[in-house]
UniProtKB/TrEMBL annotation:
<protein>
    <recommendedName>
        <fullName>Phage tail protein</fullName>
    </recommendedName>
</protein>
Length: 216
C-alpha cells in the first residue's frame, strides 16, 4: 500500500504529491497542580471536572514532489488556496476509519538543484480525539433494552422518537428517567462512556440513537 493522506476526502497522492512523513503524537492531558508550603504532595486538578481533559492535538504532514519550480508553485497554490487556515478532516491511509480535525498552515521549500519541492502541513489546534468516519446508529422498535457500544470518547447521542417514549438508564450509582413525545432530543445526562451502555426504552414507536465515537 502506498502511504497516502486525505484532506476533506481528497487524496494528496491523486493531487500529485508523495507523502514522505507524518507525525500524530498523542495529546497530553491538561494538568494543573498547586504546591502548598508544608504539604508533601501537590494539589492536583487533572480530574477536577470528574474526568481527564486533553490538550489540543498537534500534527505535521510532509509532502514532496519532483519537477520544475513552475510545476511546484502550481501544486503549492492548489493546496494553499483550498486548505490554508481552514478546518479540515485528515484521514491517514493506515487508519481509514477515523479522522483528525484541525486547521493547517503550510511551509513550502523548493530545492532547485535537486528539482525537488516539499511542503509541510502543520496543525497546532487539532481536536484531541480521532473521530470515527462512520456515525454509529442503533434502532429499536417498541419497548426493550438497547445496548449502545461506544469507543473511548464520552459522547451524548441524538435520540429520535416517532411517538411517546420513556427512557431509563444508570450511570454509576445514579438512575435517570426521561419521558418525551415524538421528536429529536439530546439529554446531557445520557452521556455514553467507553464500552457498553444499556438503556431501557418503553414506547410503541421507533427510537433511533445516533452518535459519533472517538478515541485518542
Amino acid at each position: 500500500m502506498i502511504p497516502d493522506v486525505k484532506l476533506n476526502g481528497k487524496s494528496v497522492r491523486e493531487m500529485g504529491w508523495i507523502r514522505e512523513n507524518i507525525d500524530f503524537p498523542t495529546p497530553q492531558s491538561q494538568t494543573n497542580t498547586i504546591v502548598v508550603p508544608g504539604r508533601n504532595s501537590p494539589i492536583r486538578y487533572t480530574e477536577a471536572l470528574g474526568r481527564v481533559s486533553y490538550q489540543p492535538r498537534s500534527f505535521t504532514i510532509v509532502l514532496s514532489m519532483l519537477g520544475t519550480r513552475k510545476q511546484y508553485d502550481q501544486k503549492v497554490s492548489e493546496l494553499v488556496n483550498q486548505y490554508a487556515g481552514k478546518l479540515i478532516k485528515v484521514i491517514r491511509s493506515e487508519e481509514t476509519d477515523v479522522y483528525a480535525l484541525g486547521t493547517v498552515e503550510f511551509v513550502p521549500v523548493y530545492d532547485p538543484l535537486l528539482r525537488k519541492g516539499t511542503i509541510t502541513l502543520e496543525c497546532t489546534d487539532g481536536d484531541s480525539y480521532f473521530y470515527h468516519v462512520k456515525e454509529s446508529e442503533a434502532v429499536i422498535s417498541g419497548s426493550g433494552t438497547v445496548t449502545l457500544q461506544n469507543d473511548f470518547m464520552p459522547v451524548v447521542p441524538v435520540v429520535i422518537t416517532t411517538g411517546e417514549t420513556a427512557f431509563s438508564w444508570r450511570i454509576g450509582e445514579d438512575t435517570y428517567e426521561k419521558s418525551v413525545s415524538a421528536g429529536t432530543w439530546e439529554f446531557p445526562e445520557m452521556e455514553l462512556g467507553a464500552g457498553e451502555n444499556r438503556l431501557s426504552v418503553k414506547g410503541e414507536g421507533v427510537t433511533t440513537f445516533r452518535y459519533r465515537e472517538g478515541r485518542l
